[in-house]
From TrEMBL:
It is an enzyme of class 3 (hydrolase). GO terms for cellular component: endoplasmic reticulum membrane. Residues 192-296 form the CAAX prenyl protease 2/Lysostaphin resistance protein A-like domain. Its EC number is 3.4.26.1. Keywords: Endoplasmic reticulum, Hydrolase, Membrane, Protease, Transmembrane, Transmembrane helix. It is found in: Endoplasmic reticulum membrane. Belongs to the peptidase U48 family. One of its GO terms (biological process) is CAAX-box protein processing. The chain crosses the membrane at residues 45-67, 88-108, 128-147, 179-199, 205-236, 257-277, 307-325. It comes from Deinandra increscens subsp. villosa. InterPro entries: Rce1 (IPR039731), Rce1/LyrA-like_dom (IPR003675). This is intramembrane prenyl-peptidase Rce1.
Amino acid sequence: MRRFVHLEEICRIPITVAFENKIRKKHRSPIPSIMEVAGGSGGGVPVPVAITACIAMAIFYVAILYSPTLILRLPPPSSFKSFLIRRFVCAGISTVVSLLLCAFILPIKSWNMSYLFSAYGIRLHHTWEAVIFPLCLTSLMYTGSFVHKLFSIWSSCAEHGDRQIDISFHGLKSVLQNLINWMLSLVYNISAWRMYIVGPLTEELVFRACMISLLLCGGFKPYTVILLSPVLFSLAHLNHLLESYMQQDSSLLKASMVAGFQLGYTLIFGSYASFLFVRTGHIAAPLVSHMFCNFMGLPAFFSRRTWLVSVGFVAGAISFVYLLFPLTSPVLYNDRTDDCKCWHIYCDWS
């Protein structure tokens, strides 16, 4: 059986003697002391270091996007595609730097890469669970959107009732060909790469994998981490609003309202993504949810055309709350050789 490395084995987290004795009693085999695991003296990552590193990574993630023109003095990009490619490179550099910075700060034992990947939530086992379960859970919040889409399709068919659905071989072939063409259009669409690949991947690695590992190693409780890390994630999106305000010359009041809405939405989603990462210990969980939410946009909770959208949204929200903890139970996502059920050893936080 594969043994999953707990975050405790990476971090010298200062805990009370009573709590350590409680953990020792939980395990079938005695766990080594924190001093023995980390190979040194003292506590884990100091709180000021963890907070400073998180703030620095958030600032660097945004600031580097403007470095080509402001620091390197490169000419403005000739096209929107070259503009986004330049930003992809900057986001990739900031992500690699954040991962390396986090690796140096975390008290990793003998530079064991499995320890580091475990802290980042990068692992292959239980991948399908980390993809399917969070995706199904997230999709419940979009029940109203699905109802709205189905109603639109039904209305369109009703308006063109004289048209018959072609279920012949050529008809199905045409539908499949249209689906393939749509998928290829996404592959060659630079904006789709930003929304569904580069953006979610770099943001989850920086704002979840790096920051949450540092904060947990700094001794912050999981609930505190879930509420704290999304603040930086939310503030990091204000640059898009500033750019939009300057380009569209909107009023200050309108820009402020949009900024407030954006802050609220990213704060809520950031908390949810942090919750998924803390609960599952798998980076795939918040990553696929991030991609899915970017694809779907805002959930539909109201429609003037039918009240079924609101009913669907309420039903989906109730189901989401009911299944939130069961579908994110750490037992579903981790191999265990002892009685510890969670990847970060905070077994009793939920």
